[in-house]
Amino acid sequence: MDKLTLHSKHRPSAADHPPEGQRRFVLVCEYDGTAYCGWQRQINGPSVQQVLEETLARLTGEAVTVTGSSRTDAGVHALGLCAHFDSATRIPPDKLAFALNTMLPPDIRIRESSPAPEGFHARYSACGKVYRYAFFNSRHDCAIGRQYAAHVPLELDERLMHEEAQALCGTHDFAAFAASGSVATSTVRTIYRAQVTRSGETVALTVLGDGFLYNMVRIIAGTLMEVGTGKRAPGAIASAIATGDRLALGQTAPAKGLTLMRVLYGGDEETALAFFK
Predict the structure, then answer these.
(1) pLDDT for 30-80, tens place per residue?
(2) Alpha helices in the chain (DSSP H)
(3) What whole-number distance in Å separates Cα of residue 34 and Cα of residue 100?
(4) Is 173 labeled as catalytic in the residue annotation?
(5) Distance (Å) of CA 155 to CA 98, 197, 201, 226
(6) Kindly report the CA angle at 82 between 252 and 39, in degrees rounded to 5?
(7) Disulfide: which of 148, 223, 236, 263 matches 69 by Cβ 3.0-4.6 Å?
(8) Nearest residue to 149 (alpha-carbon basis) of 138, 165, 159
(9) Which of 2, 16, 32, 73 is catalytic?
(10) What are the φ/ψ torsions at residue 108 (nearest 5 degrees)?
């Protein structure tokens, strides 16, 4: 496998340093997104960010703002979303995870807590992200784990899907892969790896990039699903990149099959590549 080097484009600013008298803490969050309207605070329902901020306020006695590295949509899950917050609390950084996990609901867990490196910002310091989309490929849907995979009753050709996914790799204008409502100032992204594998009845897309547009991974997954079932001809992804035509691509796959596996920072190359072994 080719060597991977992750680069941050972030230029440090005053926002990358905590206020005087406070420290910056880093949290790596895992959550089941089924019951939430997404990561970011919303007026239409509970969000993961809201629950974390309210829990931290009870723990520290301070009004705390949590800044996430990503904004997952309603129903999307995470195993490694990174976030930071500033606080004057004297709780040791490595003990924060234990304290928070006694107070958080069971569908949100803090996997790691640590002091932030100098100039760290959860969103702007990020160099890349790994997403995984899972299909349950069987005539009948499963009862256990159904909230983490989209059911596909038709046979999927995972080899054909993997070949199709290779057209994603490289730096391209992914304008055709952004859902309406995207506010990105640029639609150019770099995809470093894309892989489709099968394990029993589960077919999974794993993709690593420097960033992703709104609903981009779900649009990719829906397109690969259609290619894998024979509904859409191979070459759809390459055509959409070349023409910018959303109609060349498939449906947007359901949110429940998508998991943010890890947000990556400088020096995380081995962590990133481990998802593709």
Answers:
(1) 999 999 999 998 888 899 999 999 999 999 999 999 999 998 999 999 999
(2) 48-60, 93-101, 158-165, 216-229, 236-243, 269-273
(3) 20
(4) no
(5) 44, 14, 10, 11
(6) 45
(7) 263
(8) 138
(9) 73
(10) -130, 130
